[in-house]
Design goal:
The chain has 78 residues and is mainly alpha-helical. It has helices at 40-55, 59-70, and strands at 2-3, 10-11. Bound molecules: zinc ion (ZN).
């Protein structure tokens, strides 16, 4: 099973992949509407928003948590 290189989500079916293409290394949530992968900043912003919404954290706290999560993923490891 593949894991999205940009957010770590397991991709089980073709619907989980960007544009439904199982050759892609990133998931539907990490793709822009044109099918290309989102940038680090776009991903950081959406993940920060997600953490604020789901965990009710302060934006600054959520952003550093998001940075920590992203830093472990292959797309952003450098
Ligand atoms: Zn993803």
């Amino acid at each position: 099973m593949k894991i999205c290189i940009a957010c770590g989500m397991p991709m089980k079916t073709s619907q989980d992949f960007a544009t439904g293409d199982e050759k892609k290394d990133y998931c539907i949530h990490c793709a822009r509407t044109d099918g290309t992968m989102q940038s680090y900043n776009e991903k950081l912003e959406s993940m920060t928003g997600f953490i604020v919404k789901t965990q009710g954290l302060d934006v600054n706290v959520a952003q550093s948590a998001a940075k920590g999560m992203l830093s472990k993923l292959p797309a952003w490891r450098d």
